[in-house]
Design brief:
- The chain has about 350 residues and is an alpha/beta fold.
- It contains 17 helices and 13 strands.
- The strands form three sheets. The protein has a six-stranded mixed beta sheet, with helices on both faces. Strands 2-1-4-5 form a four-stranded antiparallel beta sheet, with helices on both faces.
- A hairpin with a 2-residue loop joins strand 12 and strand 13.
- The protein is globular.
- Bound molecules: adenosine-5'-triphosphate and magnesium ion.
- Adenosine-5'-triphosphate binds next to strand 2 and helix 3.
Length: about 350
């Protein structure tokens, strides 16, 4: 599963009346704050390159104003870039005319919004089937599919209710069912869970991961919550002031932060809970049969519990019934110390 579904190449977005004239300044590295102060233009995105893989969850994260929404809006061309390319499923979407673009949005993409965006005077069933109604599909087929997806997201029995009769979490489940009913490959989720309270949010993350295991959609998920990002991302892109500071597998970013900004960003994370045994183990396969087995997908917290506090203990790490490596508890201890502290011991608070 390594094909790109979307390629974003050398993408720049500058907001302002004379944006193309600002491109050379953006390319030569002018800072966002200077461009605003000297020229009154907002540098939205600078030189963004991302390969969004088919069947993966790509999470775009960054603080408020870092450019997350601007970036996701380029994928359905709600925004045109000042320069650069966006290729969706082999099509350069900047070359599409209005009708082709509409067709692409209706057949290949769905969106899940933070504010749910349900139609208040339509039932849950009608809301869930909306993308197919807009496409003109047969009513009976739509209702059947909408019912099935409502069932999958845990809303069986709520079909005849109206949005105001649902809690926020339930409304977001309708939003998710609506995106799934559209049967599109790509799901765009801009802060989809940010309005939900923590417990509901966490159960919606679990639901998404559970569905994803079966469906393997291509999902672009925006959040400013690092815990959420680390939980659901296959590929994590961290934006700051319109630029990518680091992108890669979340575990890799945690263990190898590219610069002090990322180190600081990830410093409050519960590393024992987020880091997995497979990311920390060595790939040596021990011939010894005396070692206790540990699953590579367990987190370090589980490894610590299993060690019963014995720092000298070593585990044989298994994945899908095969030994894939060896985990020493001393490696666990090292991994719990952030990279900056490991390389510079005097860097303590
Ligand atoms: N239409 C616009 N005109 C001018 N500036 C804009 C426009 N849209 C966005 N911007 C600017 O682009 C930058 C990125 O905004 P964007 O909305 O993409 O941030 P974000 O990461 O989604 O933030 P948030 O977490 O608050 O949603 C900001 O500096 C913003 O002020
Ligand atoms: Mg936003």
């Amino acid at each position: 599963m390594t094909d790109s579904f979307i390629s974003i190449r050398n993408l720049y977005k500058i907001f302002g009346p004379n944006s193309s004239a600002m491109i050379s300044r953006a390319k030569s590295g002018m800072h966002k704050a200077d461009m605003l102060k000297e020229f009154g233009h907002v540098l939205g995105l600078r030189n963004i390159n991302i390969e969004i893989k088919k069947g993966e969850i790509t999470v775009i994260m960054g603080l408020s104003g870092s450019g997350k929404s601007t970036l996701i809006r380029h994928l359905n061309r709600l925004i045109d870039p000042t320069s650069g390319e966006v290729i969706v499923n082999g099509t350069d979407i900047l070359k599409l005319d209005r009708l082709q673009l509409l067709q692409l949005r209706r057949t290949q993409m769905s969106m899940v919004f933070q504010k749910f965006a349900l139609l208040p005077h339509e039932t849950v069933l009608t809301n869930a089937g909306m993308p197919c109604s807009v496409r003109g599909d047969d009513r009976r087929v739509i209702d059947k599919s909408a019912r099935e997806w409502l069932h999958r997201v845990g809303l069986s029995g709520a079909e005849a209710l109206y949005p105001h009769q649902l809690s926020g979490g339930m409304q977001q489940r309708v939003g998710l069912a609506r995106a799934l009913t559209s049967n599109s490959e790509l799901m765009l989720m801009d802060e989809a869970y940010s309005a939900l309270d923590p417990l509901i949010r966490s159960s919606m993350q679990d639901l998404l991961l559970e569905l994803q295991e079966d469906l393997q959609k291509t999902i672009v998920f925006i959040t400013h919550d690092l815990d959420e990002a680390l939980k659901i991302a296959d590929h994590l892109v961290i934006l700051k002031d319109g630029e990518i500071v680091q992108q890669g597998e979340p575990q890799h970013i945690l263990l190898n932060p590219a610069d002090p900004y990322i180190e600081d960003f990830v410093s409050d994370i519960n590393r024992a809970r987020v880091l997995r045994v497979r990311s920390v183990m060595t790939e040596t396969i021990s011939g010894s049969t005396d070692l206790e087995l540990l699953d590579g997908d367990e987190n370090l917290e589980a490894a610590i519990l299993r060690s019963k506090g014995e720092a000298g203990k070593t585990f044989a790490v298994h994945t899908a019934g095969q030994q894939v490596g060896t985990l020493k508890m001393t490696d666990v201890l090292k991994a719990l110390v952030p990279a900056a502290r490991r390389s510079n011991p005097s860097n303590a608070e």
